[in-house]
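chain below, 507 aa
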Amino acid sequence: MLIEVGASLLSATFGAGITYIWIKNSSSKKFNYIELEAKARAKAIENESERMLQDAKANIKESELSLEKEFQLRIQEVEKRNRDLILEQKDLQREQNRIKKLQYKLDDKSHILDELEKKKHIQIDKLIRKIEQTASMTEDEAKRQILEQVETKSQSEIASIVRKYEHKAKEEGEKKANYILAQATTRYAGEFAGERLINLVTLPSDDHKGRIIGKEGRNIKALEMLLGVDIVIDETPGVILVSSFNLYRRAIATRVIELLVEDGRIHPGRIEEIHEKVEKEFEQKIYEEGENILIDLGLFPMHEELIKLLGRMKYRASYGQNALAHTLEVARLASVMAAEMGGDEKLALRAGLLHDIGKALTQDFGGSHVDIGAQLCRKYNEHPTVINAIYAHHGHEEPDSVESAAVCAADTLSAARPGARREVLESFTKRVTEIEEIATSKDGVQKAYAINAGRELRITVDAGKIGDNEAAMLSKEIAKDIEERVQYPGEIKVSVIRESRSVNYAR
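prediction:
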């Protein structure tokens, strides 16, 4: 038993020793392999580094050569520029010397001219004394007579020259203006505007008239007081009239009455409730209206108060022309004109849109819509060109840009086109009479007629007193007087007619 155990231990020890020797030899071979591989890699890295170093040295050398070459070229350029400067300085010096010589000659000639001028005055004085003795006329009297003759002759010549150049300028200006206006008007087609002073409210039956009037007229009095309009109930079946110059109040009043009729409950308390509701609806509606306009025109951003006022202009009219429709028409026309003249069409569009913004508040606060509009635009930091266009379109300032001028022209075009506006008969008659009186007050005018709805003044003059050239000057003078003394939309054409008639009778 002990022998077997000892044999087993001996066998195990021998096996372990053999295994140790095999592992040691195997590890030694593996280490040698790894060492050889590491040395090979180190050699490769060393070779690569050496190659990169050589490449870097070559690049540096090439860069140095390139910089050296560029440096030499720069030196040559500087030397050439210095040579040119030296030559220019020499030329300048020669020119200065030449100018000095000419100055000396000029001073000499000036001295000679002064001497000649003195001699001339002496000779003139001698001649004047001789003329006075011969003509028995003093120097002042002679001057006055000569000046009168020269003035008479010069007036005719000046009138002829003015007429010639005015005609030439007018032809050239008309060609350019007609082209721009044609481009603008053909690209924009506006509707003929017309606003009434009353709204009709249709009723389901005539019984509703009594309910609107109310007991002892309480309902109609409450409506008129709260809404700020006149409500006319007459014998016309099925309708009542809502009358007011303020379109905004009239629109609210019409909507309130329509809702009251639909609801059926008509009494002062219900009227106030419906009115408050409708006012809120209209505030939201006018903001959305202004917002939609800006979206269509692409003019965001804009202050929300200006957006509300834009929407409110839908309920404002001037001479029967809707203010919002007029504003949009001016904005689009101004944009096209500015583009044709090389201006900023977006800025012209914005200026045209805001040029009458003050009209949205004039019915509530009074005052000039020009001043109100300019103050609003300053308050909300609008472009200076927009503010200038507001002042310029009514002549408060001169246009300072193409965009402002385009707004002024577009405003005139929109207001003056046929059918755009309506006037009260009394103011129209007064204006026509006034321009005829301006014409007939001039010397030599025989008759004057305002035709074409007051847009043309036709004048007949005495051919014996006024010549062709004087007729041109007269038309200019009358046109200027009309501009200064008469308020009118658009423009007035002044035509002076001169003719000679010979009349004989056969007896």
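The first helix runs from residue 2 to 135. Residues 188-195 have pLDDT under 50 and may be disordered.
thats it, cya
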